[in-house]
Amino acid sequence: MNAMASQRIKLGLSTCPNDTFTFHGLMTRAVDWRGLEFDVELIDIQQLNDRLFSGDFDVAKTSFHAALLLADQTVVLPSGSALGYGVGPLLLSARPNLWPADEGQLTLCPGRHTTAAMLFSLFHSGTTRVDHVVFSDIMPQLRDRRADFGVCIHEGRFTWEQHGLGLVEDLGTRWETETGCPLPLGGIVAQRRLDPATIATVQAVIRDSLDFALADRNAALPSMRRYAQEFDDEVLMKHVDLYVNEWTVDLGDVGRRSLDQLSARAQSIGVAQGERPLEIFA
After folding, report:
1. Active-site residue 154, yes or no?
2. Is the pLDDT of residue 157 over 80?
3. Residue 7, SS3?
4. Which listed residue (65, 154, 163, 239) is catalytic?
5. Poorest-pLDDT segment among 29-38, 152-161, 208-217
6. Are residues 60 and 134 in the same domain?
7. Contact at 8 Å (CB) between 101 and 127?
8. Is residue 253, in this structure, part of any structural domain at all?
9. Percent of the chain, pLDDT > 90?
10. Judgement on whether residues 215 and 258 belong to the same structural domain of the protein
11. Domain-located, residue 274
């Protein structure tokens, strides 16, 4: 028997449609697992970040903000990232024409170590109080006027107007304007405790799964519907169109430059980082 045949990989993924699209082939075993055994868990992105800090996963999706802090323990895989133009989180208001400028105001972010929260700190530091909640709670709390602002991610980018909310700023557009780079939101990381051959095999399976989805986009819809907050197929596919792109296939040099920019910007607002820079596995 192949020595790798019984090796189990604890894989953590987010419930967002770009992940369920990319990993549908892996989750349903429509692609060859190449001798590995995957135990897959799908949870909220901040829960993924927290569990990675605890060392619970061998491989997982994580916010690139968290990845900066985990660079001593993990490497970034070339495939599976969410990085691009026009993909950034939106800063929304509970009513139109409201601007964050008062410490009595409250802004909701989708998790302390999310890239979305880092962007709010980067561009609107000290303007309001900040609380962190599960991303799917942000728009309902804004709609019910239990908060003044919210940093919205995932499907809500396409549905916020239906909730009568105001758009303060597209934080991704501001990032693009100031850096000239696509915004790196999150990626797949592997623990350095895994041997390089195992990491390479995991990367190959992920790439196979992504290629499977891209070859027949509708095939992934059952997994996307199962986990999405918004169940409209058109919204789900808009999400895929926006977040699954050439850099999802391979981060490449553009991805490396974007991660370097994120690291530099994080340092500028005092985000502590590990001794190693973010490393893309090769």
Report:
1. yes
2. no
3. coil
4. 154
5. 152-161
6. no
7. yes
8. yes
9. 78
10. yes
11. no
